[in-house]
Design brief:
mainly alpha, Growth Hormone, Chain: A, 3 domains, 5-stranded antiparallel sheet, two-stranded antiparallel ribbon, sodium-independent organic anion transmembrane transporter activity, transmembrane, disulfide bond
Amino acid sequence: MGPRIGPAGEGPQMPDKDSKATMDTEDTYGGKASSEPQNLRPRVFHSIKFFVLCHSLLQLAQLMISGYLKSSISTVEKRFGLSSQTSGLLAAFNEVGNTALIVFVSYFGSRVHRPRMIGCGAVLVALAGLLMTLPHFISEPYRYDHSSPEDMSQDSEASLCLPMTSAPAPTPSNDSCSSYTEAQHLGVVGIMFIAQTLLGVGGVPIQPFGISYIDDFAHHSNSPLYLGILFAVTMMGPGMAYGLGSLMLRLYVDIDRMPEGGINLTSKDPRWVGAWWLGFLISAGMVALAASPYFFFPREMPKETHELRCRRKFLADASSPVSKGENSPSEQNPGESLKKQDDLVQIAPNLSVIKFIKVFPRVLLRTLRHPIFLLVVLSQVCMSCMVAGMATFLPKFLERQFSITASYANLLIGGLTIPSAIVGIVVGGVLVKRLHLSPMRCGALCLLGSLLCLLFNLPLFFIGCSTHQIAGIIHQPSTQPGLELFPGCAEPCSCPSDDFNPVCDPSTRVEYITPCHAGCTSQVAQEGLDKSQVFYTNCSCVSGRGLVLAGSCDSACSHLVLPFILLVSLGAALASLTHTPSFMLILRGVKKEDKTLAVGIQFMLLRVLAWMPSPVIHGSAIDTTCVHWALSCGRRAVCRYYDHDLLRNRFIGLQFFFKTGSLVCFALVLAILRQQSKEAGDKSTTSSPGLEQQRLMLGPKKQPEDSSV
């Protein structure tokens, strides 16, 4: 579940027109000596190393705020009464704005002041993070016991069995179901959707512009090192997001406006809602701080000194293209470069918007017709669908399946699963570099990683346990809860159907939705060592002593959470092992002039086909396993209870399905590569070196123009 690395060469940059002109004309004020901007700006802002440091911190903070919602998805559902399908759609909206604009970064890459664009995007991300916290401040304080009137202490006698009550059962919630309440709810949810969209829009220029800026002004031998440091720091962002979620969800949601009498909840209570908004506030502040240096970086900075010496020494030798130009020596005319390559397929700095729009469909269709590119992208789509669903709903799955707190679930994911994925990405890159893997061996490594990931997924179907017995709930997702479904012993109590204050009979491990549904008429609070334990007595529906404990019954398989998360983490490492070799297959499988847009097309397809629909698909599958919905003004709100066996089978089954699809695609890739290798071996050595089959099978030393990365 590593970060989705954007195209490194968005908008290829033309080489310098001469070896000494490295500063931007805008920053040199009419072509004056480069000492003037050096005096106007601190010297540190003309250092590419400082830019790498700033960009690493910014991407770390940006991925942290983008991934934070996934760590608190179940908390947001409970706070605002959302279904998993709606929360999945909310998480997917982060990709909407990003997808709509990412392709045009290829066009604007060389035409704008990239550091300032990065800074503006980061400011927009910070503002979107602040906007995500707005629903907390404009909403009423969270009331976990809706049966008690507002002037009474929550969790009071209002949830007890009171036969003489004069209030009819179905009406308590109807008083609050006004048009204003519904409009307020829609407004709050709409604000969060807008904020998620702005998060995606603000993140568009950050990664592509930053990577291309580093690649342009770093020495070509230092650029891979700088990018490696950037990616290594960036990949810690999702893990820190889950760690921040683990800390924030231990705090009560209304920590800034606690009721006078306090609260009678612990983080283990299913009604507990943590301070989800506080994480957005902290991460937005981090993004704003990381964005400030970008407004002081020049549009262009001097190349590193050893790069200039190398260029003076080898200026006449243009046989080896540098990573940013790939085409021509410094004295080459841009117009001649476009004529040597197809002027309709090479995205050059002087290409107009109209021409760019005409070029893109042709490059898209030609690239998609390439079988290797298409199959590798489909395999990455399947893998990304698995990662997106797991990243969004794994915390909620662990909470429900093993009865653990949201804070502990985030701690497990941020401490085990995310680092395992990072290790997998690093190991995959090391294997490709150290073993000098050819496209054939890259395909074999991807196939092996997918196969092992699929095998480690199988035991997950059997790690878990069934839902404990819940009195009065029929395990039929289509059945709506009502008074007629509860035991007859509670009929005289006139219990409200929408109340939720679960209690557990410790002798039989039977759970009741409220003390009223257990027939309890009195409440006793017993002070313990660190907290008070609440008991309900005189319960007509409970045999024996007639005593129940406040809170849900503990799961019988909570000890299995560690073996489960270890298998998930191992599978994440094996899936991440395919990241680098599959990326190399794409770079070596398309024409040289199409590489920039091919990578952009790849990540656009990943967003459209995987990161946008996958959270909605997983959320919809989770909703089908619900057996008891909370009702809000007659509509389904948050799910109170799930069928654990059905939840496990469908959630893990979706993961298994996507992993199988990735395995099949990589198997087809390997079969095509072997067929091409056999055909290339049968042909004469005098065959044309420009064929795509030979381009795939020849290493970079034999075909530097076509296979260089």
